[in-house]
Amino acid sequence: MIDADLRLSKLHRVLNAPQAPGLSEYLSGTADLEAALQRGSPDNFFFITGGERTANPTELLGNGRFELLLKRLTPAFDWIILDSPPAVPVSDARLLAQFCDGVIMLVHAGVTPVDMAQRACQEFTKGQLLGVVLNHAETHPVYGYYHYYGEP
């Protein structure tokens, strides 16, 4: 997993790991891959944090080193998951999508406006967007009752 949100990286907090060195240090050339790549739990989970905040995240992501990083990691891993910043306010997600086989968009229920989610879907080319995950949706017990009624 790579925290490619260089504007507001959070992966290091979730995994209780050091923030740096991370992706921003690797892309700027101040850290090598061995320093940025961390092993998590379970032992076959590896990740790269976002690193320290940078003034030029879009330039770093587009400088060519990110593509080289993915080419280097692809043979070693079955899956590489990128966490990106939101698709609408900045162009980073669209830039990152060109390196991916597919995009799964996360939408925060009750928080993300519908028009913004629709605009975010339009940011990606046809075929890139594989699906949408609705996070933080409330469940209501009434929905479960349908399972108790059989058809005649």
Number of strands: 6
For the sheet with most strands, the description reads:
2 strands, parallel
Number of domains: 1
Mean pLDDT: 89
CATH architecture annotation? 3-Layer(aba) Sandwich
Poorly predicted sequence stretches spanning 5 or more consecutive residues: none
The CATH class is identified as: Alpha Beta
| Separation of the first and last Cα atoms | 49 Å
Category by helix and strand content: alpha/beta
Task: Report the order of strands and helices.
Answer: EHHHEEHHEHEHE
**Count of discrete alpha- or pi-helical segments spanning 4 or more residues:** 7
Strand order of the largest sheet: 1-4
Give structural notes.
By secondary structure, this protein is an alpha/beta fold. It has a single domain (2-148), classed as P-loop containing nucleotide triphosphate hydrolases (Rossmann fold, 3-Layer(aba) Sandwich), CATH 3.40.50. Helices cover 28% and strands 15% of the residues. The protein has helices at residues 11-14, 23-28, 33-36, 57-61, 65-73, 92-97, 114-122; strands at 2-3, 37-39, 46-48, 82-83, 103-108, 129-135. A two-stranded parallel ribbon has the order 1-4. A hairpin with a 6-residue loop joins β2 and β3. The radius of gyration is 18 Å and the shape is globular. The model has no long low-confidence stretch (mean pLDDT 89).
